[in-house]
Amino acid sequence: MTAPATANGFRPGPFRVASAWFTAVVAVIVAVVFFFAALLLTAQTTGNAVLSYVVAAAVALACATGLARLSVRLRRGRSGLTEGICLALSLLPAAGLSWTWFGAPATSTPLPESASVRYWDLPTGSRVAYVRTAGKVTHPEPVLLVHGGPGAPTGANDEFARRLAAAGFAVYAYQQVGAGQSSRLDPAEYTLARHVADLDAVRQELAAPKVVLVGSSWGGQLTAHYLAAHPDNVAKAVVASPGAMAADSFPDGSLTPGGHSDQASRFAEHTRFAATYFLAQAGGLRAARTLMPADTADGLYQQFVHSLDMSAGCPAAAKPRRPADATAGYSLWVNVATLASAAKAADPRPALRHNDTPLLVLRAQCDYLRWEVTREYRDTFPKATMLTVDGAGHTVLADKPAETGDAVAAFLTGEALPGKPYTAAEAPSRW
User: Fold this and answer.
1) Bond preceding residue 150 cis, omega within 30 of 0
2) What angle do the packed helices 401-413 and 158-166 form, to 10 degrees?
């Protein structure tokens, strides 16, 4: 079939017609690609969502119409119709994809309001929520529960806190700034140094010369950096399934094979979260937060973390059920910004090798972090003691609140520990 002749009698050949339609298809693809490039670049530069979409639409319009006109010239067809088709086929998928990525809502679950929640307005500028658990207080050092994430406060440690309160301690489960019911900041202010400063400001609010820190996951890393900065302000410390102390601690990764496989699978499953997370991590945090509402980002983060297997270090272990609200109050932007700051922070290990604070290290059998990550805490601190916890995952305090609560209480009060300290370099053979 030959192409129809134009008004002036010109009849384009098959190659010219194919080239023209190929150019039209390229026009659509290039317009969509340039739409997103302009959208992200403008959002990253200006922080203005409306302007970003206007600029992106204008760029897509220019690309689509420019290449559409080239297609028309190749086959000498009707200019307006071709341009209109190319423009529609460009803007419709661009708008649809941008809505699917940034605009479609994702339900986030806040921490429930409670009369037990109180607030500190710290001199750092942070408004920090906390819950106090105490009975008859017989020990002067308050216990601060330093949660993980960053940006992942937990309400699952109630029984653990009651065990410490029964031993005579006032226990404060505080929600780090940027998450839970604490205040939100511009992401540029979410730094490791800010969290360390907030933690010391909490100590001062309590008028406590020394505190006890119990850090879980990322909270272990924050505890280590606090001890490096304020070695005289901590009476004793506990780290449970702690994260790596320094960015270069484990260049080949800190996850077990099971943990790595599980997280890769979950990223593949939660593609929208993966795209947002990697954009933010790659330096596009301002663009991501400009285009995506914070509630939506938090909802995606909560869904992703809820899907993770916290016991992936034991491949044969059944994945335990987690409550629907297990990730309530989790916040994404503080997570990304804080981790980026921590990656550039000074290595605390040189200072910690001379820190004489007594430290209890809890290693969970099924933690998705490698054995070497936890062991480094024991081997770095001169006065460290390690206890292993069978049948527990990364959320060891929530998984075994009675067992870990009693062990921590014994450590803090100077009583005999419920188990024999683990001193070998290798993981326990029974695991």
Assistant:
1) yes
2) 30
Cβ contact 148:217 at 8 Å: yes
The separation between CA 136 and the C-alpha centre of its own chain, rounded to angstroms, equals 37
d(CA 55, CA 53) in angstroms, rounded, equals 5
Question: What is the pLDDT of the chain when averaged over all its residues?
Answer: 89
Reported in sequence order, the residue ranges of 123-201 that DSSP labels E, i.e. its strands, are 127-133, 143-146, 171-174
Q: In terms of Cα–Cα distance, which of 337, 324, 277 is closest to 301?
A: 277
Are 190 and 334 within 8 A, CB to CB? yes
| Residue 147, SS3 per DSSP | coil
Counted residue by residue, the chain has a size of: 431
Amino acid at 431: W
Over residues 232-241, the mean pLDDT reads 98
Q: Per the structure block, which two tokens stand in for 356?
A: 């004489």
Q: State the pLDDT confidence band at 10, using cuts at 50, 70 and 90.
A: very low
Sheet holding 117-121, edge to edge: 117-121, 127-133, 171-174, 143-146, 211-216, 234-240, 359-364, 384-389
User: Which pTM does this prediction carry?
Assistant: 0.90
CA dihedral 131, 135, 141, 146 (to 10 degrees): -30
Q: For residue 9, with 0-12 CB atoms within 10 Å meaning exposed, 13-18 middle and 19 or more buried, which class applies?
A: exposed
Residue written as token pair 């088709």? 85
The two tokens of residue 92 are 């419709």
Q: How much is the pLDDT for 248?
A: 86
Q: Alpha helix (H) ranges present in 157-293?
A: 158-166, 192-205, 218-229, 257-269, 271-279, 285-291
| Helix or strand holding residue 152 (H, E) | none
Kindly report the number of other CB atoms within 10 A of residue 19's CB atom.
Answer: 16
CA atoms within 13 A on the CB side of 23: 20
